[in-house]
Design a protein that fits this description.
Layout: E1 2-5, E2 20-25, E3 28-35, E4 43-46, H1 58-65, E5 70-73, H2 89-102, E6 108-113, H3 115-126, E7 131-137, H4 150-163, H5 168-172, H6 178-190, H7 204-219, E8 232-237, H8 246-254, E9 259-263, H9 270-273, H10 275-287
């Protein structure tokens, strides 16, 4: 195992300036960023479909990093991480375990969004002792209704975005009404706040491979979520076209003692549209 640090600066409190580091384990060099005070249980962020380090909303990361050691990372074969992109959710969970244990952690909290939430569930199923608390946003369970339709929606919205010279996330994550359009543009603008040391964008191959993994997850046998004993916070918008909002309610019903927050007039990116309301909820949940 080897680690390299691309900066001698102290740990940052702003995601826009947190240096990119690497750690090599099991033949893969993982790119990651960390910020916030070290010590205590770190919060590891599990990213969405075809996403890199630069896809996390600083208005979510920074409030959590104020009092927590936050770590974000690129999946294998994505962004600045080496290797072949994983073709199943379970393989991504194995990679996450490799990365987390290489950093020397035996207990973490997980913050996840979309595909990241699926990976988080697979990780907890295999290594329940590793995860203390779980935040699942914009996601659904294995075998969840219509998860296997994500690919069709994604390709359609990429086409719509291309025709209007927009970022696909504006279509995929937000409603196409006045409120949603404004929230989408504001979100995309926030992702540009980091101006140095930006990550390589995900390739078409990454998108295609991860979409196949999501389809497999949607068509797999339902997991027994009654075994999941970690305190769990679930959040989504009320009109998620990518991972239907009813699946957040499904997760809530099946995970004993879980908490559910649904934001009205918002889509897949409800937590980003309502970051000013959601970030304090996540902070309070993790601090409990």
């Amino acid at each position: 195992m080897t680690t390299t640090d691309t900066s001698n600066r102290p740990i940052d409190t702003s995601y826009a300036t947190a240096p990119t580091r690497t750690i090599t384990a099991a033949g893969v060099t993982f790119a990651y960023r960390e910020l916030g005070p070290k010590g205590g249980i770190p919060v590891v962020f599990f990213v969405h479909l075809a996403a890199t380090l630069d896809n996390w909303d600083p208005r979510i990361v920074d409030p959590i990093a104020k009092d927590h050691h936050v770590i974000t990372f690129d999946n294998r074969g994505v962004g600045a991480s080496t290797g072949e992109v994983a073709d199943s959710v379970e393989a991504m969970a194995d990679d996450a375990y490799t990365f987390i244990t290489a950093l020397g952690f035996d207990t973490i909290d997980v913050f996840s969004f979309s595909l990241g939430g699926m990976v988080a569930q697979a990780l907890v199923a295999k290594h329940p002792e590793l995860v203390r608390k779980l935040v699942l946003t914009g996601t659904g369970p294995a075998g969840g209704k219509d998860i296997d339709k994500v690919a069709g929606i994604t390709y359609w919205d990429i086409l719509r975005a291309t025709l209007t010279r927009s970022d696909p996330k504006e279509f995929l994550f937000f409603n196409r009404n006045a409120t949603g359009k404004a929230a989408g543009k504001a979100f995309v603008k926030r992702l540009q706040e980091r101006t140095v040391d930006r990550d390589a964008p995900a390739t078409v191959k990454v998108l295609q491979t991860q979409l196949k993994a999501i389809k497999k997850w949607g068509r797999s046998a339902p997991a027994d979520l009654s075994k999941l004993t970690q305190p769990t916070l679930i959040a989504n918008g009320d009109n998620d076209r990518m991972v239907p909002s009813v699946l957040s309610e499904d997760l809530h019903r099946r995970i004993t003692g879980s908490e559910l927050v649904i934001y009205t007039d918002s889509g897949h990116g409800g937590i980003f549209q309502y970051h000013d309301r959601f970030a304090p909820v996540a902070v309070e949940f993790l601090a409990r």
